[in-house]
């Protein structure tokens, strides 16, 4: 079996697709810190969370004991429309790099949302439908999550209201149009439709919006409309749970060919892709069965793991959400305007934050010109135009493969290729024209992100 | 076997991928008419064609006797990067339509060119490389072919010069940027770089260009540079040959599950997708082994099969190319400016023209608002945002499935989903805003396309 020829693309059979998501919290000795009610500083209860999230999703959010959670049949049916996603052996990239390393990537871009986001969007839409809701609200930055949710809601006949960061709304009209194709209502944020939006507009009249601000508006819109709930595309533990479909498929595909990875790499914004990819492998490490090296890759311009603090912080600008303990740059942090890709959230999934704090995960930050160099190199030999976010993982995968070339080690590298860059051509154009700049925040820039955050118990900022 | 459960997506194993292309001309009793030299009106010879096309491709163009042609190993290697493409059972669409029909589509959009065009691009680039050429020239309209060729040339280290119809160059900067990612040089056409371009610019100073004009420029550029040849993305018999990979994979996948199609549908512009999809099935009909219904779908605004004439015509505006006998609207025909999608070429592959004339293929023309309605309906249930071109086939597939609903027939419908619509959001936006109009050319409009075409022997126009 070990000598079985590895095809370019490993596709699982439908019958091999996972029937359960894996909840890594069940195997963590140090559980992620609970969400806190900012008024009482006590852990959020089911009753406190259910006005915002669907009941079943609240249960998943609070569940840190069940290792496996069944994937409902309706969701599995939808998954079959675009999954299993291929695990690709990057033969052409290996040849180009002349490395003895074996490189694999799990490609999540073969669906119209253009990314892995659809894996959780369909789950969240399903539970909303099951609860008899009319619709859901959400925010979107670059637009991948908004597109994914639009697709999922359209499938289940749910109303979908998307608050899109104003600068993206204006610069990415095509993303907006894809969402409209799926029947979503897209509103530029901040807007006049919410109290928090009006307040932000009054305080910062010319603002082009931010993710934290759009979250506040979407949450308010959900709680003020009968039959609506709020849904989120990353950070939350429920989202990481749904995204484990990525890692579970990857593991099944690797096992099928007796491939044992040495290094597993993913880009990290809010953490949903990385968490989904590595969870099943982290579980093996936590249970003492295996050992792998995990690398989280983040932009140097938004370095929450490598330069943030592990404290309780607000998840949104308007401070309407619960507090989460996470590696954070402070909820007031906004990455430099010349940062091109996504991965611009100030915080990080509480699961990944705890695993990182416990030393299970490494983190690296990379600058964007180096990221686009890797993206272009990859596109030219592997035939896929990668999203800027995904290209962070490509950068480090290539770096690790080049180390193998120096040392002669035949390491097996697996990375997550989360999506495609079709809607990111403005950034590619800047790169081609030599107009892309790197920017590393100063310590003072980072400190500014924490201004206005109260000193919660245990926080040291 | 007949009761075997059909998965949502049928993927072939690498070992099941075709090793030979199928040359349907070998099985045609009435061969397609040969290309003629416009000066002598004699069939073009190998020696006359080789200054324009690579030697091996000229051989393929002229070969109407060998039924199977080996796919070189290097091309098969590249195919493995993005093929086999899935044959998808449209379970969700069937359910939505409540039809007893069984609908399948062969999806060619899962590669960065966004379409089937890559299947021939990589073959043409390979033969150019093999011949020791420096590079190739071509034209592109909507940009799918240009993107595909850029990818192929980048893989083999060939220079790639693309003449892009000026209106597309300006309206689709993102397509241009994808080509630049792959290192192609993209020039808006008509340009000052060629004699024919300068002539057209002098005669029509404000022109926004046309495909026929860009072809003329690309051919001139190829013949005037040492070590260059011209390549084309459709119409030619060599292109249809390479595209038979689509139909051969489709047939293998169907056979694997004992599925026998009743109707096979494809959109038709120059004919490469339709020809590639149906060739192996047409072969069975020609050999008297089977019977299928084939439907070519074309835009009502560019109806070469349904309203054109079967005559010898120029392939390009500048009249630098050989004459081809084909269903044509006249080389002077340019579709109305409000026509949104591709499929705007004035002529049709000589292979398909002959098959159509012999009654093996039906043709239908559809209006673009009906096409976009089908596109949106499909996107919402099948999760893929289709290209406008491909949506012509979707329209007729849905129409046929609805007929089955009326009659209760459980027909099996297979259609070609050639690509994705990520770069066509301007058209989708028009559709969403109710600004899309239909346009059917008058008989006088059509007659105008033939003005200036000499009366070649046998032509009756």
From TrEMBL, chains A, B:
GO cellular component, one term: cytoplasm
Keywords on record: Amino-acid biosynthesis, Aromatic amino acid biosynthesis, Lyase, Pyridoxal phosphate, Tryptophan biosynthesis
Domain of life: Bacteria
Cofactor: pyridoxal 5'-phosphate
Swiss-Prot/TrEMBL catalytic activity: (1S,2R)-1-C-(indol-3-yl)glycerol 3-phosphate + L-serine = D-glyceraldehyde 3-phosphate + L-tryptophan + H2O
Molecular function per GO: L-serine hydro-lyase (adding indole, L-tryptophan-forming) activity; pyridoxal phosphate binding; tryptophan synthase activity
UniProt domain Tryptophan synthase beta chain-like PALP: residue ranges: 82-419
Presence of keyword Lyase: yes
Gene3D superfamilies named in the record: 3.40.50.1100
Keyword Amino-acid biosynthesis part of the UniProt annotation: yes
Pathway: Amino-acid biosynthesis; L-tryptophan biosynthesis; L-tryptophan from chorismate: step 5/5
Subunit structure: Tetramer of two alpha and two beta chains.
Biological role: The beta subunit is responsible for the synthesis of L-tryptophan from indole and L-serine.
Stated family: Belongs to the TrpB family.
Name of the protein this chain belongs to: tryptophan synthase
Originating organism: Eisenbergiella massiliensis
